[in-house]
Amino acid sequence: MSKKFGNFTIESIMSSPPVVVHKETSVHEAARIMFNNRIGSVLVVEDDGRLIGILTERDLVYLVASDKLHTASEMKVWHLMTENPITVKANETIGDALSKMKEVNIRHLPVVNDEGKPIGIVSMRDILDYIISFLDLSFH
Fold it and tell me: What are the residue boundaries of the CBS domain, all occurrences included (predicted)?
């Protein structure tokens, strides 16, 4: 019996290790890291490595639109990040992740371990790539 695509686990599609920044990193530096890594978000961690937020392209658009771009080199990511982001565990299903993303209209889901430390990230693109490869395999 074959599994439906939504029943596979996050672990099979997550990007790991995730790109993380410390909460005291400047927004400018975080944006540079996102640009250099060609990614749409960075995970923000506390001193002990626990996830406390996520900084996304949307946050950077807000910064530009609010005419506060000149403060990006001094502003710390914790000022702009989304606090306490929605997360998933590696053993949750892709279907669960997709439901969470749709429910709150987000495109990036941090994957955390039992201690709340980031071990990966899943983006809408990861899920879409997986669905496309699943469909491609199914039709050949």
Answer: 14-73, 81-137
The predicted-structure confidence for 66-124, as pLDDT tens digits, reads as follows: 888 787 889 999 999 999 999 999 999 999 999 999 999 999 999 999 999 999 999 99
Q: Which of 22-36, 44-58, 60-74 has the lowest mean pLDDT?
A: 60-74
- CATH H superfamily, domain 5-138: CBS-domain (3.10.580.10)
CB proximity list for 39: less than 8 A, separation 6 or greater = 19
Domain coordinates in residue numbering, the chain: 5-138
**Cα 18 from Cα 10, distance rounded (Å):** 14
